[in-house]
Amino acid sequence: MAGFFKKIFSFGKKEVVEERIDETAPLPPIKWDQLDALKPAAEQAVPEFLKREQPAAEAAPATVPHPPREEVRPAPAEEPTPEPAPTIPPTPEPTVPAEPEPLPEPQPQEEPAPETPAESPAPDEVPPAVVPEPTPEPRPPEIPPAPSEPEIVPSRPERRPEPAPVEAPTLPVEVPAEVPAPIEVPPAAPVEVPPSAAAVEQPSKAVAAPHPPAGTFSPYRDGAKEGASAPSSPGLRGEHEGQRGLAVEATLEAPPAEIAPPIRQPAPVETQPVIAEVAPEPQPVPQPAREPKPVPGRVTVARKVEQKAEPQKAPEPAPRQTWFQRMRDGLARSSRELTGNIAGVFTKRKLDEETLQDLEDVLIRADLGVETALRVTDSLAASRYGKDVSDTDVRAVMAAEVEKVLAPVAKPLELDLSHKPHVILVVGVNGTGKTTTIGKLAAKLTDGGLSVMLAAGDTFRAAAIEQLKIWGERTKSPVIASKLGADAAGLAYDAFERAKEAGSDVLIIDTAGRLQNKTELMAELEKIVRVLGKLDPEAPHTVLQTVDATTGQNALNQVEIFRNIAGVNGLVMTKLDGTARGGILVAIAAKHKLPVYFIGVGEQVDDLEPFSASEFARAIAGVA
Ligand SMILES: Nc1nc2c(ncn2[C@@H]2O[C@H](COP(=O)(O)OP(=O)(O)OP(=O)(O)O)[C@@H](O)[C@H]2O)c(=O)[nH]1
């Protein structure tokens, strides 16, 4: 170690070098003799080389004489290892003996100091005196400055194709041979070296530290040299060779600017990444735009195939189900339940009293009502009693009887236009579809050429007012509305007058939804009817009640109350497209015998269908 330091100084500054050489004298303990024995012919060349350059560069004649080994050890190259680089120090780079020659570069005295630290790593040999020198030198070892690098080369035999230098690293003698190497060594060489994964990783450590900013460049070089030469002892060499080599590479490649890239390169080169890159990736080959494939039809073949211009049919939207299909789907649940139960009753059984009783129970549970249930059982008993009866027979009878019940109420809505306007009051429990039904009906009327005016009598709900206005816009029907919370009866009165003045054919008045058991609300509804009567004793001319088909038995009670309070004279069964419980309609019809003008089978404007007794009966009985 001591020997190294001495030389380093000589590189940086001749004078200093000599002095330290003296100090290091004690270091001799290094077993260079042994090393000499190992030296190949390369050594011989070395001495000569050293002799040449030293004198020239360093001008430190005393030391220059580089004796074959002895001098070599102390060889400036090794000493220069001063690689102050904090990280590098641990890796004693011994082999770089050649450095001394290139080192001739005069360096500030300060530099030597840093070298000592580098030596510190070299444990035993370094005399404390030498080490102490605190030189701020950055990370020299990595610096790849062109000139000095040749020396470093030896440490990395792999890179350099040069024969002698490769192995020589350990021996100072080899240094000369390396000198030329620097020139030849391509910057890429180090990258290729990737001998082993371990080596690759190491460089990152050693190199990373060294990378100094551009400003530190010059010292960096020195350090590199030193680092390469650092070979304090053979033993150390063996241990850290790998590291050294890496460091050297970095330095070789090294012009500061390049340093960064080389460091990273090694890793990828060695491992998979490189392979990945090499692997040919399917590159998107620009393909010429293809002519659209002709669609079925005529084509003309000239320079190329051309599609005959034919009117392309726009993709037709999926055909919407007919209202009957929607109603049927809506009644499916109750229908399946009903027909299934019927089938259960009539499986391999003759029609007897017990069977008839079971069938009656099934029909009543289906909301058809007692009256309708008895009609069906009586009809079956009259024609099939004591005979084998299938469920299909029973369903056919049921459909026929239900139709008989519904036929009287399945009437079209008739408007007496002698009244100007004909006033239609729409009532019902909240959410049963009053406003929606008004919109649908207005559409039908306006489509038929009638002038319609709408009155937003649901003054309790702002959304209801807005909803009616939307329907008014759609149907081009003026809407009479007041502020929220206004008196509904007063609004109805005003609307009636406005419709008279406007000469409207029809005035449709919306009302707030209310439960039939809310007396005050029902009283308000009664008031509306009374007020309208002041303008026309026969008004309202039509009172429609919307009944939610999914309601069930409660619908019977609703109709009862609204009929008594508001004089309901017609029904609209809504939401039959939902999970309807259609049986209740039959029960209502049978009990109240009120006309059922329409059925609602959806939320769209045209989802209001005239009520058909036969279709409804077949749908609920599950008859095709
Ligand atoms: N599926 C289906 N939905 C309907 C039908 N009629 C109305 N609706 C929906 O039922 C909901 C209530 O309808 P509305 O017209 O607001 O009922 P309303 O009786 O005016 O309600 P209130 O103003 O609260 O009393 C809305 O979402 C409607 O779109 C129908 O025939 N089929």
**What is the first-to-last residue Cα distance?**
108 Å
Shape estimate: extended
Query: Helicity level, as a percent range?
Result: 40-55%
Radius of gyration from the alpha-carbon trace, in angstroms: 53 Å
Bound molecules: guanosine-5'-triphosphate
Low-pLDDT regions: 1-19, 42-280
Biggest β-sheet: count, sense, barrel? 8 strands, mixed
Specify the number of helices.
27
Mean pLDDT: 65
Percentage of β-strand residues: 5-15%
Q: How does the helix and strand content classify structurally?
A: alpha/beta
In total, the number of strands is 10
How many domain units?
3
**Looking across the biggest beta sheet, what order are the strands in?**
5-4-6-3-7-8-9-10
Protein name: Signal recognition particle-docking protein FtsY
Give a description of the structure.
With 624 residues, this protein is α/β, with parallel strands linked by helices. The protein folds into three domains: 271 residues, no CATH class; 84 residues, SRP54, nucleotide-binding domain (Four Helix Bundle (Hemerythrin (Met), subunit A)); 197 residues, P-loop containing nucleotide triphosphate hydrolases (Rossmann fold, 3-Layer(aba) Sandwich), CATH 3.40.50.300. 48% of the residues lie in helices and 7% in strands. It has 27 helices and ten strands. The strands form two sheets. The protein has an eight-stranded mixed sheet with strand order 5-4-6-3-7-8-9-10, sandwiched between helices. Strands 1-2 form a two-stranded antiparallel sheet. It starts with a helix and ends with a helix. The structure holds guanosine-5'-triphosphate. The site of guanosine-5'-triphosphate has 21 residues, from helix 21.
